[in-house]
């Protein structure tokens, strides 16, 4: 099962890269739209905060980087997956800046594959940490206090 989760996460990551490459190719990532820029800057801030809180372990593609202890402080107090959430926020902002069906499809691919990675990682975390179910009742996946 663990090998399936690792490879599934890797495949989802590679699929999200296809969406990213499409957005880069079509210059559909950054714009001068102030709302999109604010969302993207906030997303980068959340990601940096999460990476600093989590430590060097967070800089790899495979899921379940938390082998020794469950991180529940910093942004992990509100989000179970602040890095994935920030990726989703960042690319949803692309739809505000570039509202067309091609951008929609690319962002949908990125968001869906990121969400799949999130689910794969949660399966591992549930197996690894007995207190993960309790933690998941307090911290939400993508939107604090809601979802």
From TrEMBL:
Q: Which InterPro entries match?
A: Metal_cation-efflux_comp, Phopholipid_MeTrfase
Gene Ontology annotations of biological process type: methylation
Family matches, as Pfam families: PEMT
Q: Key word Transferase present in the record?
A: yes
CC per GO annotation: endomembrane system
The source organism is Mariniflexile fucanivorans
Q: What does UniProt list as this organism's lineage?
A: Bacteria, Pseudomonadati, Bacteroidota, Flavobacteriia, Flavobacteriales
Name of this protein? Protein-S-isoprenylcysteine O-methyltransferase Ste14
Subcellular location field: Endomembrane system
Q: GO molecular function: any one?
A: methyltransferase activity
């Amino acid at each position: 099962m663990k090998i399936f989760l690792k490879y599934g996460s890797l495949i989802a990551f590679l699929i999200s890269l296809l969406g990213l490459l499409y957005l880069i190719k079509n210059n559909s990532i950054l714009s001068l739209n102030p709302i999109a820029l604010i969302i993207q800057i906030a997303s980068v801030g959340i990601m940096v905060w999460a990476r600093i809180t989590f430590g060097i372990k967070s800089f790899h593609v495979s899921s379940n980087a938390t082998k020794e202890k469950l991180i529940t402080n910093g942004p992990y107090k509100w989000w179970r997956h602040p890095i994935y959430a920030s990726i989703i926020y960042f690319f949803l902002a692309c739809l505000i800046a570039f509202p067309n069906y091609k951008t929609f499809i690319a962002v949908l691919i990125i968001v869906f594959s990121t969400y799949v990675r999130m689910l794969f990682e949660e399966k591992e975390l549930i197996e690894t940490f007995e207190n993960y179910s309790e933690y998941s009742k307090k911290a939400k996946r993508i939107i604090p206090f809601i979802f």
